[in-house]
């Protein structure tokens, strides 16, 4: 099974719709969610905020830092526009689904610096299918 690596820019607002966020940023999102919509297939859980998501995929673990920098550059370039969005919440997420849970990567000092400049954290999710065979010999 091929690894799935996604880096995402997630923007939430309770009062600004995803269409308003798109208009302010001038960028088409990969996905949106409206306040009150069911979360995934759950009938009990509903989105508390409007969401605007830009998802970029990577082919290799080594591309994560470059992809994160692309998303962070959008935030830096659109910092003024983001400040126009009422009650804005900006998150950066990296999701990795891999057959082999033994993986590692390094964030550059430029990426860490950009995260600090924007004032956002980085959420990292790693899901392993458990295909690694261990030997105790």
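Sequence proposed for the structure above (137 residues):
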């Amino acid at each position: 099974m091929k690894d799935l690596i996604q880096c995402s820019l997630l923007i939430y607002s309770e009062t600004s719709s995803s269409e308003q966020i798109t208009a302010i940023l001038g960028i088409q999102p990969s996905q949106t969610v409206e306040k009150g919509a069911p979360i995934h297939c759950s009938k009990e859980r509903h989105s508390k905020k409007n969401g605007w998501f830009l998802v970029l995929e990577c082919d290799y673990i080594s591309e994560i830092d470059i992809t994160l920098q692309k998303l962070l550059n959008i935030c830096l370039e659109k910092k003024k526009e983001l400040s126009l969005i009422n009650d804005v919440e900006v998150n950066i997420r990296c999701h990795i689904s891999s057959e082999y849970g033994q993986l590692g990567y390094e964030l550059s000092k430029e990426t860490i610096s950009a995260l600090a400049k924007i004032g956002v954290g980085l959420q990292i999710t790693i899901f392993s299918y458990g295909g690694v065979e261990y030997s105790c010999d």
